[in-house]
Amino acid sequence: xxxxxxxxxxxxxxxxxxxxxxxxxxxxxxxxxxxxxxxxxxxxxxxxxxxxxxxxxxxxxxxxxxxxxxxxxxxxxxxxxxxxxxxxxxxxxxxxxxxxxxxxxxxxxxxxxxxxxxxxxxxxxxxxxxxxxxxxxxxxxxxxxxxxxxxxxxxxxxxxxxxxxxxxxxxxxxxxxxxxxxxxxxxxxxxxxxxxxxxxxxxxxxxxxxxxxxxxxxxxxxxxxxxxxxxxxxxxxxxxxxxxxxxxxxxxxxxxxxxxxxxxxxxxxxxxxxxxxxxxxxxxxxxxxxxxxxxxxxxxxxxxxxxxxxxxxxxxxxxxxxxxxxxxxxxxxxxxxxxxxxxxxxxxxxxxxxxxxxxxxxxxxxxxxxxxxxxxxxxxxxxxxxxxxxxxxxxxxxxxxxxxxxxxxxxxxxxxxxxxxxxxxxxxxxxxxxxxxxxxxxxxxxxxxxxxxxxxxxxxxxxxxxxxxxxxxxxxxxxxxxxxx
Length: 485
Fold this sequence. Notes:
This protein has 485 residues and is mainly α. It is built from 18 helices and no strands. α6 packs across α8 (179-227), α11 packs across α16 (403-421) and α11 packs across α18.
């Protein structure tokens, strides 16, 4: 599941736990010192960055790009333009003033040195020789500075160090003749090259981080917990809500004659139910569990996709029930129908009014495609009564308690829970025919969800265990509780 993080090199990660809550009385000064808060923020930033590198294969840094119409963007543009205009005036004066140009050359040298690898011994020595700042200053004093010659060397060095994707920009540098534009573009391309080097380093370190990721994240979170003990409050509330749901479900099972009914709930069952609740999290609920906060964006995306699949499967099930299985066996019919369903429902489930309108239009589209398929086979269109019934059934899917939507949602929940619980010996529940039509997407979603859950349990299992023991077992029996991992 591609997920490219768009972040500047000097930006702090945004998906961070809320760690600014202070327990001091109203009106009293904060008890934490500035240095301890900065240390805490640095710890959280490192944890978030390491986690993103490990779980997101497509993770990369991108150069910071400010919107042109933003205040910060306009101010930045004005300041940069003033700087380069000032440099142009200095170079065009008689005699030319190279003071700022020398400072820029020093910065270019520093940036080039930061791109060198330990094996670039000869190139490093050559760089020190050509961009010898003492010698350049002497040339300035004697009016003998050849700025274009030095820029040419810099461009050649950049060409030998840059990734192939930067070759067009290097060629464009060679065509520039204005010294100010040349220096400006050199700095821009060097910035891109630094980003490329950072991303290369990240990808190189990723295999090593994978080996130590769980231990590293657990240790970092323990440091956060040591500095702010309240960092598990939301996690505790999350597990308590899941435990209440699991107790209710266990009570309902115990009243039924099913052979798999059990009495006391297990820590594993509570934890799995807690994870399942994350796929249906209320966006207005700010008390998101701290231990899963770094994966919230991914889980929210999976939750939206899950809701879409439930609606798609419900529409397919209703259509097949009214039209029969024959039409669904026609080549290309199901694929075309699914494309229409997906296109019309995309993004509509976030607001109830949008979903109502989308389902009304979808009912008409489904009937049109069904009648076209029947006509193509030489058959008659659906009876008017069947058309009205199907149209009404599809439009009623906006209700959360709709029987068909509820049934499909329960089957999907069971499918995902079986994937979380299981291994090769654990069979997924039997799926209805309409759900089998989206089984590939469900399997992909379940795999992505399972990877997040597995890694989270590996890292934070030791933090969940004592919370679950306190909830599920009396003090004298706490030692016999299950490990949440």
